[in-house]
Amino acid sequence: MIPQAPPVIDLTDPGPFERDDFQDTLAWLRANAPVYRHPGTPAPFWVLTRHRDITAVYADSTRFSSRFGMRIGSDVAAVAAVAQRMLIVSDPPQHTAVKRTLWEWFGPSRMPRIDALVRQVVDGLVTDEVLDRPLDFIEVAKRLPNHVVCALMDLPRADWDWIGAVTTEAFDDASGRHANGEIFLYFADLLAARRARPGDDFVSWVAAHGRVDADGGRPLTDEEIIFNCNGVLSGANETTRYVAAGALLAFARFPEQWERLRALGTAGVAAAVEEALRWTSPGVHAMRTVLRPTEIAGQQLRPGERVTLWNASANRDEEVFDEPDRFLVDRSPNRHLAFGHGRHLCLGARMARCELSALFGRLAERVERVELLGTPSFTPSNFTWGVSALPLRLHGRA
Fold first, then answer.
1. Cβ atoms 226, 193 nearer than 8 A
2. DSSP assignment string, 116-166
3. For the segment 69-99, what is each residue's pLDDT rounded down to a tens digit?
């Protein structure tokens, strides 16, 4: 049932996201104002909430640009400094060239190594020590992607916890600039070391093979390598953490779905991962800038205006999903937009699916029941959102 109109629509307010009660607003917009002109500073912006409108904008890089910022409230100067050099704020042909060179490292030939590493990390996390006792599951969830990506970059083991913490801090509006600066300096030193002594790791490979085909085949500059290593690190750490924790919260709230996954066994893991991605939608919104006059659902959009694409709304769109407000581990089909769509489909999607599949499979083997022990907390963010604290008990199987 579509909720009544909220008294105030303010998608810049962190409060509803911290309380996890923003979905009613998105549902009302889908039904009543799917292309909504939202008041904002310094200028209003458009809000798109329907799956079909959002996928159309994602697919159209001739009328909508990424290079002017990817989120509401982006620092204009910071975006300008990395535009067309960092993957998430670039357009074709630069975006295509940089993504190709980064994607090659995650290609089929390297996936067996990544799969083995992921299984090793999961086996080290889902041990007797996390069973049958109270714990904050976010502490388990955050280590999975952090350990995997740090190992693939061959970062010193002593730095892993710091890398995980500063990556999360980089998304904080108050301290994000300082945290990003620290990451850039870290990768500058690391890149210099890898150029002197290359290894079989992601950073060394990008330094040796990264090229921008669209510009005469020139190699990536040091700055471009640093910016994009930061992007890979950030994307890998945040998405998987929030999906894993959000899924365990769903399994605690809907125990019949945990029983269903356990009954399906290995064959059910892939569909459960896709439903967890849809349900949690950690990348709540993305932003584009209009390049030329265009129309969406009868609304006229002008060059320079900002358009926000609400993935979290598209993933609950009644036109696309049956019973969208139910968490169903065997949902099929499942055309969610948790990783975006089109050219900007998340670079780390394959690795995130690998990590979540290994985690869900291992938990299904070892855990009888997921018990929620208290009230979960959520991040006060309309951009990268999810569970920030999750007190629960994993009851081990006899």
1. no
2. HHHHHHHHHHSSGGGBSSEEEHHHHHTHHHHHHHHHHTT--GGGHHHHHHH
3. 989 987 787 777 777 767 777 888 777 777 8
